[in-house]
Design goal:
The complex is a heterotrimer.
Chain A lengths: L1 H34 L14 E2 L23 H5 L13 H6 L22 E4 L7 E5 H5 L4 H4 L15 H5 L22 E3 L15 H9 L10 H15 L1 H4 L16 H4 L2 H10 L15 H13 L11 H12 L3
Antiparallel strand pairs in A: 2-3, 3-4
Helix pairs in contact in A: 7-8, 8-12, 11-13, 12-13
Chain B lengths: L1 H29 L3 E2 L5 E4 L11 E4 H5 L4 H7 L13 H6 L18 H4 L9 E2 L3 H6 L17
Antiparallel strand pairs in B: 2-3, 2-4
Chain C lengths: L1 H29 L6 H4 L4 H17 L1 H9 L2 H22 L3 H58 L5 H19 L3 H23 L3 E4 L6 H26 L3 H26 L3 H21 L6
Helix pairs in contact in C: 3-4, 3-5, 3-6, 4-6, 5-6, 6-7, 6-8, 7-8, 9-11, 10-11
Classes of the chains: A mainly alpha, B mainly alpha, C mainly alpha.
């Protein structure tokens, strides 16, 4: 009696184990199939074929036949308790330090020594549409001494350092650390974090600059009149040319796989469908979710332009309120 | 009697299926397309290959959890350059460079050769997966691996 | 009889299954046994032989030996002799195939040698470290002093406080004097104080503030050089974007076309600049960079 009970328990355990293994194998097959670009693969979310933070024996530079390699701590074990980030080690080291999750020594002989920190932001203007760079001394002096950078790498005086993105990418200047040990420049916004104000464009006076035209539809004071159709068209034309024309053509004619705007059923059709595409993008294509890059005023301008340029429409504006309302609708789950 | 026979063979079949599944899963894990060593790992091969040892792999991530940058790059004199420090075992024994901590007191001692000398034989000194490397070396060549930034995270 | 066989095989199979699951569970939990790396380090014939070779070198003809012999230190020479004996014994062990005890002897020999070479080198190394720290600190204090003078004038419109500058200068002079007298510890201590004075002075003026470094080009040629560098930067960024995002092949054609257009425009800009017309060169370069920006966006990185 007892024996058969025991057997049935074991049998259940065994079958449970079998089910788990089969599911595991199934997922493994799914990953492999996905990696081979099978369009009908189950679970397309498992797109990644890269193992981040791989353990030393599998990471490609450690020798797996070396006796010591298997003993080294796998990064994923250490990182499981640290705040994640997008690039590099995929750990937000600054946050880890500020939150106290790591307590690195500031002095070899005195573990409890505190580090002198200086809080001074340097804003560096850049030409073009990229936001200006903000260099924060605070986050850097939490890890480094003044002497580490001054004066070998940077002269502590405005205008004395010719900073160049090309040099940084090639491992000079900021690239001495960023791109090698500190976070790489894949995430532009971490440094280019101060959006430009329209006044800093430095255009000749007497002529409205592009930034001013766009600002007319984005910066709305409380109770001010909403932008006119002409203002929206003017701003939309600039924004369209800057951001959409590369794929959809300067005259809205499209290019190869990228759809044309002229005579397009979407652009001339219901506003909601057009809004859905512009705000949320289209998965698995180059059409990104512009709702995340632009505010309501800019999207309203671009859509007004698209729906009315090149003989498309009938002179009706798309307003910022409609965009805002569409965002809420989309966010609440369609 | 008939029940017993069918049950027993059912179990054997189940066992076989389990083993096959586990083997398949294990194989798939090993066969993963590309692996990414940790960002910031520095391969140091000043004299290792000449001495018949595997090159050293220095993991920045492990050390920055425990020490701020200035401790090594200021007080201990490490330059910000892979291969820019003439490190050899004798200096380490004397307590310079790595030996300042790897002396059995702060961190493990120098008798554990294979814990540091763990790189693949013959690799040259480099900062693994640095931006410079990715710009200068085309992908897939010279042991360079996947991007540091994966959008699909 | 047949029934008993069936029962036996049934039992065997289930216990095998249970055993496999148990192995998986144990393997998974073994990581939780937090032991230090070195105690878990496996030792084998090959690594021990390598270590023996290295140590033989170390105790017979390395710089460590020379250092110990030149120092003439009795304890060190004694330790060296003991280490040499240990290495010989370890080699004998290896010959007999007992690499585990060979490893223990070799580690002991290594510990003996390094303990004494470390002791003998301590002064040299400390002096070198101190020299480095002193020089770095000296450079920093000088740079901060200059910064303070400049910042005081920029931010307050007045000159830097004389008493503060005096304190810094006194610290620098005293530090230099002590360094010359080879009292580096003292020098570093004095300079640390001067450093604190200087950083406090600058921080008080600038703490929490934001300094804006605007783009001011003095000549069109300067702006042209900036634009060339900007164009180069975008070229590299495009390479990176392509390698990171691996865009769909249908985009690659268009990206190639944009890149070609950009290169053509750049050639045109360089020709304009060579002819002395920097303003036109700047405008053309701006267009060229615009094409690259479009290409980078198409490759998946969004540039505003």
């Amino acid at each position: 009696m007892a024996k058969s009970l025991e057997r049935s328990l074991l049998a259940r355990l065994a079958s449970a184990g079998a089910i788990v293994s089969v599911i595991g194998a199934g997922l493994g097959i799914a990953v492999l199939a996905q990696a081979q670009d099978n369009p009908n693969a189950f679970n397309r979310l498992l797109k990644r074929s890269v193992t981040p933070n791989a353990a030393p024996p599998q990471d490609g530079i450690h020798d797996p036949t070396n006796p010591g390699t298997g003993v080294l701590q796998p990064p994923s074990e250490s990182f499981s308790v640290l705040p994640p980030a997008q690039a590099g080690n995929r750990i937000d080291w600054v946050r880890a330090l500020d939150d106290g999750q790591i307590q690195p020594w500031a002095d070899l002989s005195d573990p409890s020594a505190e580090k002198d920190v200086m809080d001074l932001d340097i804003v560096m203007e850049v030409k073009g549409t990229m936001p200006d760079v903000v260099y924060p001394h605070k986050q850097h002096t939490e890890w480094l001494d003044c002497a580490n950078c001054h004066t070998e790498l940077f002269i502590p005086q405005r205008g004395k350092n010719q900073l160049s993105m090309a040099a940084i990418l090639l491992g000079e200047q900021c690239g001495v650390c960023h791109g090698k040990v500190a976070f790489p420049v894949s995430d532009c916004k971490r440094c280019h974090s101060r959006p430009k104000s329209p006044a800093s464009s430095g255009e000749a006076s007497g002529e409205a600059s592009d930034e001013d035209v766009v600002a007319a539809v984005t910066e709305q004071a409380e109770g001010a009149e909403p932008p006119s159709f002409d203002q929206l068209m003017a701003a939309g034309e600039i924004l369209y040319f800057d951001h959409c024309s590369a794929c959809h053509g300067e005259q809205g004619e499209g290019f190869e796989d990228f759809p044309a705007m002229v005579g397009s059923a979407v652009v001339q059709g219901p506003l909601d469908d057009h809004l859905q595409i512009v705000l949320a993008g289209v998965a698995d294509t180059a059409m990104m979710a512009w709702g995340e890059e632009f505010g309501d005023g800019e999207i309203a301008a671009i859509m007004t332009f698209e729906r009315n340029a090149w003989g498309n429409g009938d002179g009706e504006s798309v307003t910022a309120e409609q965009i805002a309302e569409a965002r809420t609708r989309l966010a609440s789950g369609e | 009697m008939n029940d017993w026979k069918s049950m027993a063979s059912w179990r054997s079949r189940l066992l076989l299926a389990c083993m096959a599944a586990l083997v398949l899963a294990a194989g798939l894990l090993v066969m993963q397309k590309e692996s990414l060593a940790e960002y910031g790992d520095v391969v140091i091969n000043n004299y290792s290959t000449d001495a018949g040892m595997r090159p050293v792999v220095f993991p920045h991530w492990f050390h920055r959890i425990r020490f701020r940058c200035k401790v090594c790059h200021g007080d201990l004199g490490f330059k910000f350059k892979a291969g820019g420090n003439d490190i050899n075992m004798l200096k380490i024994f004397d307590g310079e460079y790595c030996g300042a901590c790897h002396n059995g007191a702060i961190a493990w001692g120098v008798e554990n050769c294979t814990l540091c000398h763990a790189g693949q034989p013959g690799m040259k000194t480099r900062v693994h997966n640095s931006t410079l490397e990715r710009l200068v070396t085309p992908p897939g060549a010279a042991g360079q691996q996947q991007p540091a930034f994966d959008q699909n995270q | 009889m047949a029934r008993m066989n069936d029962m036996a095989s049934g039992r065997g199979v289930t216990s095998l299954l249970a055993g496999m699951i148990a192995i998986v569970v144990i393997a998974a939990s073994s990581e939780a046994l937090a032991q230090s790396a070195e105690s878990r380090l496996p030792v084998n014939q090959q690594t021990t032989e390598q270590k023996a070779l290295f140590l033989e070198n170390l105790v017979s003809r390395s710089q460590s030996v020379r250092k110990i012999e030149e120092a003439g230190d009795a304890a060190a020479l004694d330790a060296l002799a003991k280490a040499q004996g240990l290495v010989d014994a370890a080699k004998a062990d290896l010959g007999g195939g007992d690499f585990a005890s060979a490893n223990v002897k070799l580690n002991e020999a290594l510990a003996l040698v390094t303990e004494h070479t470390r002791r003998l080198s301590q002064d040299d190394i400390t002096r070198r470290h101190d020299q480095r720290r002193y020089q770095a600190l000296h450079g920093s204090v000088l740079a901060l002093r200059d910064a303070y003078v400049r910042v005081a004038e920029e931010d307050t419109g007045e000159e830097a406080r004389a008493s503060t500058l005096q304190a810094i200068d006194d610290g620098l002079a005293e530090g230099e004097r002590l360094a010359d007298a080879v009292d580096l510890d003292g020098a570093i201590g004095v300079l640390r104080q001067a450093y604190d004075v200087a950083t406090t002075a600058v921080s008080d003026l600038r703490e929490g503030k934001t300094v804006v470094s605007s783009l001011n080009f003095e000549t069109p040629e300067e702006e042209y050089d900036y634009e060339i560098d900007r164009h180069d930067s975008h070229r590299y960024l495009l390479t990176l974007a392509l390698s990171e995002n691996a865009p769909h092949p249908s985009f690659l054609e268009e990206i190639g076309r944009l890149r070609q257009q950009s290169d053509d425009l750049r050639a045109k800009a360089e020709a304009q600049a060579a002819g002395g017309n920097f303003e036109a060169g700047i405008r053309t370069l701006d267009q060229a960079t615009g094409q690259l920006i479009n290409a980078i966006r198409m490759a998946g990185i969004y540039i505003p």
